[in-house]
Design brief:
CATH topology of the largest domain: Ribosomal Protein L25, Chain P
Strand order of the largest sheet: 1-3-2-6-5-4
Radius of gyration: 27 Å
Shape: elongated
Number of strands: 13
Structural class: mainly beta
Helix content: 10-25%
Largest sheet: 6 strands, mixed, barrel
Number of domains: 2
Order of helices and strands: EHEEHEEEEHEEEEEE
CATH architecture of the largest domain: Beta Barrel
CATH superfamily of the largest domain: Ribosomal Protein L25, Chain P
Oligomer: single chain
Distance between the termini: 91 Å
CATH class of the largest domain: Mainly Beta
Length: 206
Amino acid sequence: MKTISLNANIREQAGNKQGRKLKREAMIPAVLYTKGSQSKLLKLDYIEVNTAIEKYGNRVILQLKVGNDEVPAIIKEVQRNPVNHRIIHIDFQPVSMHEIIHADVPIIIVNGDRAEKNGFLINRQLSAVELEGEVESIPRSITIDAAKLKIGDVLRVADLEISSELSILSGVEDIVLAVKQLKEEPIDLIFPMTEPELIQNPKDNK
């Protein structure tokens, strides 16, 4: 798991009014859930945090620089505006560099468009796998190269390339994806027959 640094400042207040003020200042409110003591209210630069999440995702160790202290932490939850998806709040969880944690690691499929061009249909059933291990050993993601797949392949959790330093908590026989032949459905150009409508001549009613 990659480690990056982020600057954070203590904020004295919470609530909607404080949140609106921080938004005007291009800052994000956050909470650091410290162990054995009261949680810390933080504020961070929006652009710096958003850039880090877009580049590295949630699976990254953050060295939070709070005053003279540096606290290693991971992102526990990111709250977003449901309309514009802008980050509105972040929860951080402190970690020790050799702490054992559980994590849902996303499964990423690359070259999927190439498989479709070859007439393959990738039936995906799992989007993440649950792993246990030292925090710095948890990968950001697990990649599957669809260009190496062929029709009839069934990929299970046990088939994923996962370091022996990690324990797999998901079912090893769970199916991640299956590859099938992409069938093109024929277009039915036959229109249903309808009885012709009888149009009466007005003279017939006289």
